[in-house]
Amino acid sequence: MKTLGDMETVLRSRGVLKAVTGREKSEEKQVSWLTCDSRNVKEGTLFICKGAAFRKEYLQQAVRQGCIAYVGEQIVETEPEVTGLIVNDIRKAMAILSAAFFGYRPGRPLLTGITGTKGKTTTAWYLKAMLDTWEREQEHPETGLISTVENYDGKHREDAVMTTPEAPTIHEFLANAVDSGIRYATMEVSSQALKYKRVKELQFQVGIFLNISEDHISPQEHEDFEDYFSSKLSMFRQTQTACVNLDADYSDRILKAARKAERVITFGRHPQADLRCSQICMDGGGISFQVTCDRFTERFSLGMKGSFNIENAMAAIAAAYVYGVPVSCMKKALQQTKVPGRMENFVSRNGKICSIVDFAHNRLSFEKLFDAVYQEYGAYKRIITVFGCPGGKALNRRRELGLIAGLFSDYVYITSDDPGMECPEKIGEEVRSYVEMTGCPCRLIEERQEAVGQAVRMAAGNLEKTLILVLGRGSEKYQNIGGKALRYPTDAFLVEQAMEEYDTYTFCKVSGAGQ
Fold first, then answer.
1. Half-sphere exposure of 468 (CA within 13 A, CB side)
2. Residue 387 near residue 415, CB atoms below 8 Å
3. Residue 22 contacts by C-beta under 8 Å, 6 or more apart in sequence?
4. If we measure between CA atoms, which residue out of 299, 305, 303 comes closest to residue 327?
């Protein structure tokens, strides 16, 4: 167990500590816990005062619950007084302290970081499935995962709250993984996690860069595309082997940044890729492709629809190649893996309606999804799209998604999707103005459940087979409404419910007609 003196020493050695207040003999006190969430404080906690939303009341609550000291950029008076470790960079300090407290050691477990504008979750699930298949063959434990959907560290399997958690949560996860005998862990790394130093102390044995497109531009996130792009590229500074998609926009710049890694492996359709994808075939609803590299030439098949998932599969194959995973394990995993909230299909009994639930929520993912739909769902002649845009962030999405949905849909329902502190109707009206620019008819229905139900009812009235796209949330179980994370049904649940009502009605109607 660490003492408060140990924590002070590590901060000073890294040049982060500015001053210590109210020390007395507190440096000998044992630090039993570390957190930046006042709700999780217990006796012996070192509390971290981070973020623009921090209020003195949070620290006072922490003191009442047993906090023995705090870390902050400013001196905060408390009653009773506790020791303050005053630092010049709270984000850096939090990463340093988290690594020290939980005893982080690079390579335990072997860690893969995945970044990019789209495809992080599917790539993470593909790679985890490959590693799991290999570990099972060797009678080793299941591998770890930090993703947008789910986190697993050998002790806990939990729904994810955010793509990449804060540093204390990450290092607790890694410590649990080591205790559980886990040898590999795969994690999504968001631009916010990189910019705000949540992953600052980590070393990635493999770092995957999938793609890049303008996103997350707002006063609360990234001030411009350069800030967003540079944040993502910074991952290479803490990466041993970089896996780079040669088909990505700005691939030349990505490769230059990847020189910071000890080794670079490339993948994609580009003829110069180290792992080259070719001979793509979409037949009978299935997707297969050939991969050629210095070790093998093999054909792979996907268990999920969406031709854009080939890119995600290639990224996972590249990482598995680095780790030496057998090709048989890679192939088996890709055939069997399906990711919650990603290209989930729901088809009516009579085949007239097909609904797809997908996490697509930015320009790049919308473009790739509609491309895949036109290639793989040609039997469906009409497209109804249901989606919304978040409040207070990624403001560029309102225009981009509105225009794309309008251009490629026959009808659009605009609804809520994490409105936060903004008025959902205001967000929806802004999105609607862009949909209407394309000439596509649309309607604003704030309640997401009602919007999905209306989409199915409209499809039921169409004479032609209809495809319904419910986009943006995937398997997420919460919506940010009024600044609070409120439990909300997943899109898959909403679609299943609406489709079941349609199937029941159709069945009763057909049965009645036959009497």
1. 31
2. yes
3. 81, 82, 83, 84
4. 299
Element holding 47 (H helix, E strand): strand 45-48
Give the pLDDT confidence score for residue 161 in this predicted structure: 80
Q: Which two tokens stand for residue 388?
A: 């919304």
Give the pLDDT score at 402: 97
pLDDT (0 to 100) of residue 504: 84
Record the tokens describing residue 4, joined without a space: 């408060």
Please give the structure tokens belonging to residue 426: 């205001």
| Spatial separation of the C-alpha atoms in residues 177 and 73, rounded to whole Å | 32
Q: What is the pLDDT of residue 281?
A: 94
The C-alpha angle 324, 328, 334, rounded to 5 degrees, equals 100
Residue 484: exposure state from Cβ atoms within 10 A (0-12, 13-18, ≥19) = exposed
Q: Three-state DSSP class for 386?
A: strand
pLDDT, position 52 = 72
DSSP state of 141: P
Is 148 within 8 Å of 188 (Cβ atoms)?
A: yes
The DSSP result for 217-274, as a single string, is BSTTSBSSHHHHHHHHHGGGGGEEEEEEETTSTTHHHHHHHHTTSSEEEEEESSTT-S
Query: Which pLDDT value is given to residue 513?
Result: 43
Q: What is the predicted pLDDT for the residue at 19?
A: 93
Task: Look at residues 114, 311, 292 and name the one whose alpha carbon lies nearest to residue 206.
Answer: 114
**Structure tokens, 115:** 């970044």
Phi/psi for 315 (5° steps) reads -65, -45
Beta pairing, strands 484-487 & 478-481: antiparallel
Q: How far apart are CA 223 and CA 406, in angstroms?
A: 27
Strand order across the 45-48 sheet: 17-21, 83-87, 67-72, 45-48, 33-35
Under 8 Å between Cβ of 163 and 232: no
pLDDT at 23 (0 to 100)? 65
What pLDDT, on a 0 to 100 scale, did the predictor assign at position 25? 59
How far is the C-alpha of 405 from the C-alpha of 363, rounded, in Å?
10
- The two three-digit tokens of residue 151, written as one number: 């986190």
Q: How far apart are alpha carbons 401 and 427 in whole angstroms?
A: 12
Task: Report the DSSP beta bridge partners of residue 184.
Answer: 110
Contacts of 52 (CB under 8 A, 6+ apart): none
Are the beta carbons of 244 and 209 closer than 8 angstroms? yes
Question: Can you list the residues of the chain whose pLDDT is less than 50?
Answer: 510-515
> What pairs with residue 112 in β-bridges?
186, 206
Single-letter residue type at 408: F
Please give the pLDDT value at position 27: 66
Q: Number of H helices and number of E strands within the chain?
A: 15, 26
How many CB atoms within 10 Å of residue 230? 15
DSSP string, 452-475: HHHHHHHHHH-SS-EEEEEES-TT
- What tokens were used for 168? 């204390």
Tokens at 146, concatenated: 């930090």
Judge residue 314's burial from the number of C-beta atoms within 10 Å of its C-beta, 0-12 exposed, 13-18 middle, 19 or more buried. buried
